[in-house]
Amino acid sequence: MAEANTRRRARGGGGAARRAERTAVRIETAKYIERNIPNFEVLNEEALEIIETNAETILAEVGVNFVDNPAALQRWKDVGADVDGERVRIPRGLARQLIKTAPSEFTQHARNPEKSVVIGGRNLVLAPVYGPPFVRDAQGGRRYANMEDFNKFVKLAYMSKWLHHSGGTVCEPTDIPVNKRHLDMLMAHMTLSDKPFMGSVTDPSRAQDSVEMCEILFGKEFVQENTVMTSLTNINSPMTFDDVMMGALEVYAKNNQACIISPFIVGGAMAPVSIAGTLTQVLAEVLAGVAYSQIIRPGAPAIFGAFVSSIDMNSGAPTFGTPEASMVTYGAGQLARRLNLPFRSAGSFCGSKLPDAQAAYETANSLNMGLMAGVNFMLHSCGWLEGGLVADFEKFVMDADQLGVLHGLAKGVAYDENAQAMDAIREVGPGGHYLGCAHTQANFKEAFWKSEVLDYKPFETWEDEGGRDTRQLATSRVEHLLANYQQPQLDPAVNEALNAYVAEKKASMPDAFT
């Protein structure tokens, strides 16, 4: 009897230990995705050749504008382009020749080497939402973002297992002067997280600040020899390269840091309404942008970007999760691979005002599109709401949770001896069940992806626990993650040097809010 009681206590202790293990906070980051599934391709060889030929025609005959940037115009003249005012016409084949020095993949180093990522090849790196001026949560509703919001998002990204990257401007902290907020944002990424991050592109001087802060964090020589930042260089579609974005690109390329050369396309407004026409323009713009980065520094990392949405012809508002945007993204992936360049596109795109059913449908379409299109760097992978105007806390954790599905799908189907499960089938036989068989016991922990947000309990249990919907569950998840956040360690001397740099920079200029 005493022995039996001992056994029961041991089982109870084991159960308690397992429950504690399940509920304990673990700061774990999954490795970037390595696809074991094929890319989905929609264009045949004839279509690809037509689009490539037409893109070369655009560059040679229509040209692209490099505005307010005399140095860029001179650089293009020096490599053989025809420059007329601010219009640059690039002879057939020149841009393709120039981009051959851009790497097909590269490593972006994190301050924690275990969290460095390889961008390109068959890899997929996931980064959070970028750029919204507003935030939303269940308690405060929609409001202008501030620095406290920004810090919370960085912490959530750090605590999110399936996110590989801290991102950049996860929201615009409007309580900080425009000319100084990049310093605070970079400090947040560098000190509150140890994942890789993005640099500022809102002014060339701010790009230079980003490089100099990285030199403090990583060491000057390391920065010049390695890539420690990505940056988002948007093209003013159609076919216009402004001096601010190109100025930032010049700084990053010169310092061996990665630039995402990304047309900003709303079909029917910034590009033709047809899929082939949009792809032609996207390719022409990317060719010109990546070529220019290689003029600045041959071998500088560059990413083929494509931000694509369609348009509601009644209201003029952008729409997301549509079949047309998917087709452009699939086609752009094919074009990027033919150029041997890493590909950036897709995200948790939606036009909904709330994290509701519309947001879920559109986001699921957009995320799966990115996985199947062969995207290598997915910005906006979580938190996007209202066409990118809002970063939503609940949707951030809902999306970040669903990114685990992409990891699962990308694994493909295993067919080794364990996966064949013949021993299990023999053990159970006809009419049995697999719950207790040896194969299930050996594999159940890793057999299925498990949500950290969604509810799978029986109705009675769900009702007893308050009948919470997904948004309410996500609110609890946000609170849980922030309450259990643990700041990663940083060398105190490096932290002190970063703070001194930021203080000196801020003191050197008056506040500006425009």
TrEMBL record:
Class of this enzyme: transferase
Gene3D superfamilies: Trimethylamine methyltransferase-like
Domain of life of the source: Bacteria
EC numbers on record: 2.1.1.-
Region entry Disordered, spans: 1-21
Keyword tags: Methyltransferase, Transferase
Record flagged with keyword Methyltransferase: yes
GO molecular function: methyltransferase activity
Keyword Methyltransferase found: yes
Pfam families noted in UniProt: MTTB
GO biological process, alphabetically ordered: methanogenesis; methylation
InterPro entries listed in its UniProt record: MttB-like_sf (IPR038601), MTTB_MeTrfase (IPR010426)
Similarity-based family: Belongs to the trimethylamine methyltransferase family.
Protein name: Methyltransferase
